[in-house]
Amino acid sequence: MITSGQVLGVAVACVVIIVVPGPSVLFIVGRALSHGRRTALFGIAGNATGNYLAAVVVAVGLGPFLQRSDLLFQTIKLLGAAYLVWLGSRAIRQGGHPPDTTDEPPPRSAWRAVRAGVVVGVTNPKAFIIFGAILPPFVDRAAGGVPLQMLVLAVVPIAVGLVTDTCWGLVAGQAREWLSGTPRRMAILGRVGGLSMIGLGISVAVTGRHD
Question: Which of 36, 50, 98, 179 is the most exposed place for a label (fewest CB within 10 A)?
Fold first, then answer.
């Protein structure tokens, strides 16, 4: 059974890593600037789902293999980087969109936003560091059910990430609405968001692995 001490320990250990802007934050800000607040929020939901999928991968025993296999780790990282560059290029070509004024985006647009977030979340090296290196020390091996404990504890950093990512997305989305008075500004904002995602993709691709 998970104790309050385990939950608090995981939260404290993860909060600094999660709060510092990384791939997820820059992805959300880029999406908010390029497509608006609601698209960013759907992306946040997808990103959290992708992060939890990464937690599942680690919990079922693939985490140590990922840690040992540099080729597999690099492949996952490069796939995520390539996807970010593609998203950024697409945002630049589209040149921005009007601010969100409807209650919710069309279903297909919402699904695309969620799907993009899932891909970024599940290929984020930061997620594997949290779930593969930070989480295990807080598991009570004597209590048994280690995979289940890890899956439950993984909810803690994901919840922290949801809160911080939502704050970033709302702020960036609000800034977009403030600055989007003319089509020219909209195009500039869309390109800025696109360039931020391309820069993030390149950064992820060239960043070395930290064991």
Answer: 98
